[in-house]
Amino acid sequence: AEGLLNLNPDQIIEIGEPGGKSQINQILSKKVFQQLDCVKTRRVYFLNSDYASIPGPRYLELLSDIGNLLN
């Protein structure tokens, strides 16, 4: 937690497997993380498409999804 607080990211993107559990709710609900800029602005995301966790040519779709989140 201390490392994340020191970084104070503008955004967090978690990538997981389809049907996988996200840690985002834990980040958003813990009081210690409420001071993070990304939590204040609700810019914490979870991508769990199969192409996000399986290497292959569909990584371009993942990059597109990330680009859409960042804009």
Provide structural commentary.
This protein is α+β, with helices and mostly antiparallel strands and 71 residues long. The protein is 45% helix and 11% strand. It is built from five helices and two strands. The protein has a two-stranded parallel ribbon with strand order 1-2. It is elongated and about 40 Å long.
Compact description:
This protein has 71 residues and is of the alpha+beta class. The protein has five helices and two strands. A two-stranded parallel sheet has the order 1-2.
Characterize the main sheet: 2 strands, parallel
Strand content: 5-15%
Strand order of the largest sheet: 1-2
Kindly name the structural category: alpha+beta
Shape: elongated
Figure out the total of helices. Answer: 5
Evaluate the radius of gyration.
13 Å
Q: Could you give the distance between the termini?
A: 26 Å
Which spans have pLDDT < 50 for at least 5 consecutive residues?
Answer: none
| Helix fraction by DSSP (H/I, runs of at least 4) | 40-55%
- Summed over residues and divided by their number, the pLDDT gives a mean of 88
User: What is the count of β-strands?
Assistant: 2
Please specify the SSE layout and strand pairing.
Layout lengths: L1 H6 L4 E4 L8 H6 L7 H4 L3 E4 L2 H4 L5 H12 L1
Parallel strand pairs: 1-2
Task: Give descriptors for this structure.
71 residues, two-stranded parallel ribbon, 5 helices, elongated
